[in-house]
Amino acid sequence: MQIHNTTLWLKSRKLVKLSALNSAILFSLIPNAFSAKVPSGVVLADNQVVNIQTTAEFATLDPQKMEGTGESLLARQLFEGLVNTDENDKIIPGVAERWVYSDDNKTLTFYLRKDAKWSNGDPVTANDFVFAWQRLVDPKTASPYASYLEFMKMENVADIVAGRKSPDTLGVKALDDYTLQLTLTAPVSYAAELVQHASLYPVNRKIVELYGDNWTRPENFIGNGAYKIADRVLNEKVVLERNPNYWNNKETVINTATFYILTESAGISRYRSGELDLAYIPSSLYKDKNFRKEYDDQIFTSRKLGTFTYEMNLAKPPFDDIRVRKALDLALDREIITDKVLGFGQMPTYRFTPPYIGAGEKIQQPEYANWTQEQRNQEAIKLLEEAGYSKSNPLKTDLLYNTNEGLKDIAVAATSIWKKNLANMVNISLRNMEWKTFLDTKNQKDYTLAFNAWIADYNDASTFLTYYLSNSEQNKIGFKSEKFDKLIQDSYYAKTEDERANLYAQAEEELGNNHPFIAIYHYAGLLIKNPKLKGYEGKSPQGIYFVRDLYVEK
Fold this sequence. Notes:
Mean pLDDT: 93
Strand content: 15-25%
Radius of gyration: 23 Å
Distance between the termini: 36 Å
Shape: globular
Oligomer: single chain
Number of helices: 18
Helix content: 25-40%
Number of strands: 19
């Protein structure tokens, strides 16, 4: 999932073959760990209201069309998928009460709860998921996640996305109103993990077909989550209120949640005045010892499954030249950014996939990560000279990022580092846009060098590596490698987790050898929270939380 904020923001999985009986037993025993868990003796505040900061306007409220972390966060409140995640990102039941893998891990069957309803009172059925998923892969939808189900190896995805087959041939079927069956072309033992994604949330067919693109307007909107839209003011706020038809509404505590669209500095200012309950901390303020001392018990930091990168458009000069790409990769001093610009636990990296994600433990940094920065600079200057650049003929381009204080700080630092380390042989100007315009510009490939960040869609290295497959909708930079594609394809047939991890390590190495991006750091989470707001402690490696889990103490 793409991210638009610098501060936003497991378990090891073994490849096992489960019998249908064992699968049914295993997944029917998963606890229903949702909704607020108010400890005995806690006195709740009379006014159960929460105010939350977000840093950009929501580009869309349509699950099949969204691609950003902000949109996904809001979608989790308005919709519910087959599965949910707990505070440690382990999957738990959602609309599906249980699920069963076939012996060969090529069929996955979900059994839906019969009390799930849409906010208008209609029942949520397996057909709602079939409609949403077929809509996701339909070329007419133009979803940025159209290829997502291909990563699950669902039947016919590639042909449907390419327009060779009809969406109704997708490998998803409603066996009856409350039984959904997925047909896969490879044994994907972690397929249930993938269905947590926002793009796979159900949508109400009747409402979508009635209102077309206007179905997400507050007056038309129908969801199946714990909340519904009460009000929306563009570029200002989205107000959510309890959905009385949500199947577990009786255990939801927060009555109203308002997401305010604010810059980082404005957000922290409102938090300090008591107007916000959850906010982001500007890295410059976090460095203030007095601030940290004053708010120590309200600050939460954690390691996140995400990577900050600058992507290069491989189809446009100067980044169609691997020497230029490698030069900028070598010359960027990551530690200046992680330690001096940010400074709250980010891990410097030259790799895309975090090594601490599931099946990512074999991924290694490249050899040049062990060089001194001066050695890297010398090699980078040599590469630029070979490419025809010099002080009198500097490389000129611009760096695109979405409007955000933290992103600007990093961009200013990065361009300064390049200028110094590359002996004035580069001249990179800054170019910023609002979030939606930024996404549109990247989708149209109207850039050369641009900010990008990826937060795991689930806890497995494949969520990073499939991003750069030749047929991935997320791969907008034009990277193509038959070797890379084959390594990922082979990973689906790995007989052991060790073999799969080795294939992922080889794929990451192949990716790095082509230098299609400049990986800078793996994310750390940093947020500040009202001490009376309980139910979320910032532990989720993906930065996920649900308002329905929250409550306010008196």
